[in-house]
Write a structure and sequence with these properties.
It is a single chain. This protein is α+β, with helices and mostly antiparallel strands and 290 residues long. It has a 12-stranded mixed sheet with strand order 1-2-3-4-5-12-6-11-10-9-8-7, with helices on both faces. The chain starts with a strand and ends in a 6-residue tail after the last strand. It contains 8 helices and 12 strands.
Length: 290
């Protein structure tokens, strides 16, 4: 079977010239590469780490079939591949001597690539997290709405944003993919974080939104410090940023959840989010590379 030809590059413009139309053709399923490449375009190539990002485009019969990216030291991110394409890619990357910390893709692609990667490299793979991508249908504000209201984070909130960014990374078990101070500065600049505040002005939860790309906005992160949980703050602030994204012209509002967390999955469905696809994140023990 012809599994196509991969073109690898470290040049963002080259990658987008080849892959942008493909990524925009299915903006919900491609929300991560769309928002990551937009961040790289706006904030520079080293926004996610100290090494330049890596990109790839799979072409077959003159058409783009799939794409990949990696922002070292983070996981390889793949758009959907057939099992044969995933196996061929794993063989190609292994032959190039790539040392990957893991992979993030839809369930079937991640599983096929991981199995082949283990076979070619001898690494140990561990399932880190299963995720579900949701798309907003009809927005419903969960009741009762807690006392207080929303407020967009500003410059005076910088230290709290830095602290909550790191706490969120620990809470979801995926670590941090970006310097907390740089992230806070970017979100303050774009107005990309909203707090829910109690009537006395105390921030008790936050929700963020990604820049709008290809008509879609992704809600992330959503975080409530442990001492404030169970009072409806996360639902209220998520509903607010979802409403604001629609009001600003987003055609699709998306978010990811950890499938191991029934509370968040239930909450988002009550707000009006509906499942789109399931994804998986696998870790590879790089030290096992043979």
């Amino acid at each position: 079977m012809d599994t196509g030809s991969w073109h690898f590059t470290r040049d963002l413009d080259d990658f987008l010239a080849r892959a942008d139309a493909f990524l925009r053709s299915r903006p919900a399923l491609h929300t991560v590469p769309l928002t990551v490449t937009e961040t790289l375009r706006r904030r520079g190539p080293l926004v996610y780490g100290d090494e330049p990002p890596e990109f790839g485009v799979l072409e077959r019969d003159g058409a783009v079939r799939a794409a990949l990216f990696r922002t070292p030291p983070h996981w390889l991110n793949l758009t959907a591949l057939t099992a044969e394409e995933a196996v061929a890619l794993a063989a190609r990357l292994a032959a190039l001597g790539q040392r990957l910390p893991g992979v993030n893709a839809d369930d079937a692609t991640a599983a096929a690539f991981t199995e082949a990667w283990q076979r070619h490299t001898g690494v140990t793979a561990t399932l880190r997290q299963r995720q579900r991508l949701y798309r907003l249908g009809t927005l419903t504000v969960p009741g009762p709405v807690p006392p207080g209201g929303p407020r967009v984070a500003g410059a005076s909130d910088r230290e709290r944003l830095i602290r909550w960014h790191d706490e969120f990374g620990e809470a979801v078990g995926l670590g941090t993919v970006r310097d907390a101070a740089e992230w806070a500065d970017a979100r303050i600049e774009s107005g990309g974080i909203t707090f829910w505040e109690t009537p006395d002005g105390t921030p008790v939860a936050m929700a963020g939104t990604s820049p709008r790309v290809a008509g879609q906005v992704r809600v992330a992160p959503v975080y409530t410090p442990s001492r404030f949980r169970g009072r409806g703050y996360a639902g209220a602030v998520t509903a607010e940023v979802s409403r604001a994204a629609l009001a600003a012209g987003a055609k699709e509002v998306l978010l990811f959840t950890d499938l191991a967390n029934p509370t968040s999955n239930g909450l988002y469905q009550r707000i009006g989010y509906r499942p789109v696809a399931d994804f998986a994140v696998y870790d590879f023990a790089v030290d096992d590379f043979s």
